Amino acid sequence: MRLKNLAGALCLGTLLAATAWPAAAEFPERRIQVSYPWQPGAPAYVVSQLVADGMAETLGVDVAVVAKPGAGGVNAIVAGLAEPADGYTIIDAYLAPLIISPLFDKADFTYKDFIPLHSGTSNAFAIASRADEERWTDFPSFLKYLQDHPGETRFSASEELTLPHIVTSTMLQSQGAVARNVPYVGLAPAMKDLRGGLLDWILVNPGVYRSNKDHIKILAVFTDRDEVIEIYDGAPKIKDLGIETGVSGLSQMGWDWWVVAPGTPDEAVAKLRDAMSTALADPEIRARIMEVGFVPLDEPADQYEAIAGRVEAELKAAMESVVWLREEIAKLN
User: Using CA atoms, how far apart are residues 29 and 31, in angstroms rounded to an integer?
Assistant: First the structure.
């Protein structure tokens, strides 16, 4: 009888111990950080935080965007990869460090080395000249002037071998138009010199345009997306003008895709994907992103490799346009 009672007590004790043992914590249980590649405070940073805040609503934890600038955006990706692959670090991977830097051997990774969550947002470039420019009135007359006066105009599309520079070079080569590139670190200083008369035209992004719209005229926009035209107040798309430059879709504009390190648990990946998709589908968040000058992207994770691969191939081929422009300018010197 005593043995029977003892056995029963042991069974009960085992059951109580099992039920008292804490269950494994479900993801997420603490703050998630987003490794962001540029300086804080810029429009791109605002947009990333909008997405992060939307994700936080679904996940139930804080999602903080942490700026880790440097090396053309590569530092943020490297920093993200250095963290444990547990889902608590997301990498805000922009086109420049994700695709362009590896093409120039400035990074030890490629887009294939990550697990995609969801596409983020895009911002399109546009060709702008001064509002009081008299040598041309629209994009066709602008091109005609460049063709008739090779090398006589000075422009800036940020630093050399950046996306704006590559995209502009493809446009010039496709039209047999030659102009002299003046490299600037960023578009804002170039805008200052455009307004001051040191430059004839430049490539701008939505943020620079909105800060200077009373002083410039947009001639054409590098985009296939109708939503972008609203941001540039009805300016024409280059494609609608019958011009094919060799770069299309997301190859001709800035964009980001949020990714995580390889080895991140499937459960964490699934929850992060769902939270990001939900955030980008929220009408209020989409409207606020558009107000900043960006366009939300709707490509899910299964489209990542196809899209990134196409962008990589188009930009790799577009490098020939940079070489072509240099050679044409050399002939005029």
Answer: 7
Question: How far out from the chain centre does Cα 274 lie?
Answer: 20
Cite the residue boundaries of each domain of the chain with CATH code 3.40.190.10.
126-250+317-332
Query: What pLDDT shows up at residue 24?
Result: 56
pLDDT of residue 221: 96
Confidence of residue 22 (pLDDT cuts 50, 70, 90): very low
The single-letter DSSP state of residue 61 is: S
* 61 contacts 29 by C-beta, under 8 angstroms: yes
Asked if 227 contacts 295 with a C-beta cutoff of 8 angstroms, the reply is: yes
CA gap 48, 28 in Å, rounded = 20
Pairing mode, strands 216-221 and 295-296 = unpaired
Amino acid at 206: P
Judged against a pLDDT cut of 60, whether residue 197 lies above it is answered with: yes
- 32-122+254-316 CATH: 3.40.190.150
The DSSP code for 215 is T
What SS3 class is residue 118?
A: strand
Topology of 126-250+317-332 in CATH? D-Maltodextrin-Binding Protein; domain 2 (3.40.190)
pLDDT digit string, tens, across residues 285-299: 999 999 999 999 999
pTM of the model: 0.88
Secondary structure class of 157 (helix, strand, coil): coil
| Residue ranges of the chain that CATH labels 3.40.190.150 | 32-122+254-316
Smallest CA-to-CA distance from 168 within 194, 215, 196, 205 is with: 205
> Which residues, 6+ apart, have CB-to-CB distance to 225 below 8 Å?
122, 124, 295
Per-residue model confidence as pLDDT tens digits over 245-279: 888 888 999 999 999 999 999 999 999 999 999 99
By the 8 A CB rule, do 329 and 178 touch?
A: yes
Cα separation, 57 vs 308, in Å, equals 29
